[in-house]
Amino acid sequence: MRSLFELVQQSPRRPRAALLALLVVLLLAPLALDRYLLSILILILYFAFVGQAWNIMMGFAGQLSLGHALYVGLGAYTAAALYQHFGVVPWIGMIAAVAVCVAAASVIGWLAFRFGIGGTYFALLTIAFAEFTRIGFDHFGWVGGSGGFFLKVTQQDRLDLLNLRGHPAMFYYLALALAVGAFLLSAWLLRSRLGFWFRAVRDNEEAARAAGVDTFRAKMIAVQISAGLTALAGVFFAFYYNNLFPEQVFNMGRSIEIILAPIIGGVGTLFGPVLGAAILTLLSEGLTEFLQAMGWEFPGVKQVLYGIALGVSIMFMPHGVWPGIAKRLGLGRA
Amino acid sequence: MDFAKETAHLAHTLLAVDSVSKSFRGLRAVSGASLDVHEGEIVALIGPNGAGKTTLFNMVAGAMPPDSGSIRFEGRDIAGLRADRVCAAGIGRTFQLVRPFVDMTVLENAMVGGFRGTRDARVARERAEAALAALHMQALADRPAASLTLPDRKRLEVARALATQPRLLLLDEVMAGLRPTETDEMVAAFRRLNDERGITILLIEHVMRAVMALAQRVYVLHHGEIISHGTPAEVTRDPKVLHSYLGPEEV
Question: Which chain A residue shows the shortest CA-CA distance from B116?
């Protein structure tokens, strides 16, 4: 708590004021927005949150995961199954979800780092785990197998905070809390020893070791934090959408979707994942709206758009959108 | 054996390398090498390219375990210990081929070392700033490490190692490629660290100007074996050394 206070206190003045203003706007947003616009904001916050989670592992510690859907899925199924089968409230389910995902990440991390698997091979390992978990869940009858798993949907206008049933505004505030929390955690990490260790490992592992960094431990912690946070995204996903299909949650495409925002916004930066999430979501929703208004049908257009956005970003802004903006604002690298 | 050498052996031994060997695919890089570094000394390890100097350094620093032999630091066996543990024990090292953390600033690079044994960012920062000051790098503190010239990267290697608060500093050719004035500056910096902070230094160096100015004792490594050892003056007169450096025809 003290360090959180210091964090806010030490941040540069003008950006801090701007961020607080933005937070106030976001807090008041549900009063002014309709359901559709609110759902778009929820989407932005959701991707900002998972993007931030992925960024801790890749952007800070340099460990590329292309299988983060694994943690979304495991987190989602854990909390949903506990709720549906045993009536465990999602707040407890969250703890279980985080525990399951941290355990899974520890196994993957241990296997990879103990045997010196890094870079592309590590990324392949993360895909492999996500894929065989998807196939496993297809045959996991207890949670519906490939036919899907559904949560009881109740009246949306009755607020049931304990069971996370209610109006989209509740989910909006939940997503906002997650996004703000992950942002603050990342900001704190960048100043802490752990964050220095992460970045040292990312930039040069051998030099990090020589400078006293326990690189195995640093990488394990990065993977565990990232997976634990992503588990929360999974719980959110399950209770927001109320249905889970292995083909959908564990899909490789989901993993890619998670990493697009931080890549386009700026890998390793604090604001990159947030900015990227806003850009991507607004672009894709805007395009969908536009096509609908014109009466055109264009299946898969979202994926095409993502591909173009990624291509443009990598060609013209390989470090993402944020570093350029930060330079203009005189904010350094934040 | 003269009196100076006799008393040197009585001084507290900080690092004791005893008949250490290392082979790579059957090729002997280091073969039965022994050397001692006493508390407060500056010792140089010289030898032609490929003599095994860096391999010996890597074994002391924990980058690779020796095949045989022992390495004791403050009486404790550190052979085969992981590099971060060796660092925690009090040995800081630089890399001959510089390895800066390129996406971090100069200060942040040094701070990574400064976090050795503490979580406190303020302590890490103070240590890093002191280390940068010792190498006259304060003005570069906020520059991205990627923007540094090679001589500055070499200095950064030293600053980062120094920020870990080592008792023994292993310097691997940090003066190669420096201009004579820069070399003299660095020599002066090492002298001060040795005098004022009591940091013991073991350095690999080709720049004889620096070796002569700094080292109290010199070990000569050739084909993985220590072929000579003594004061800089003694070693440079040793026929075996002249032979290995200049070739048999010249002697």
Answer: A212
ipTM of the complex: 0.91
Residue numbers of B between 121 and 140 with CB closer than 8 Å to A: 121, 124
Assigned token pair, A47: 């991707």
Domain spans of chain B? Answer: 1-90+167-251, 92-165
| Shortest Cα–Cα distance, B84 to chain A (Å) | 4
As a whole number of angstroms, the distance between CA A171 and CA A156 comes to 11
Buried b (16+ CB within 10 A) or exposed e, A105-116: beebbeebbeee
Q: CA B180, B162, A58 angle in degrees (round to 5)?
A: 110
Burial class (CB in 10 A: 0-12, 13-18, 19+), B49: exposed
Output the pTM of the full model.
0.92
Q: CA B224, B60, B42: angle at the middle one, nearest 5? A: 90
Contacting B residues, span 72-91, partner chain A, CB-CB under 8 Å:
82-84, 87-88
Q: B1-90+167-251, superfamily in CATH?
A: P-loop containing nucleotide triphosphate hydrolases (3.40.50.300)
Q: How far is CA A331 from CA A12, A19, A188, A327, in A?
A: 9, 13, 17, 6
Compare CB distances from A210 to B87, B108, B111 and report the shortest one's residue.
B87
Of A192, A204, A212, the CB nearest to B84: A212
pLDDT digits (tens, 9 = 90+) for B19-63: 999 999 989 999 999 999 999 999 999 998 889 999 999 999 999
Confidence of residue A41 (pLDDT cuts 50, 70, 90): very high
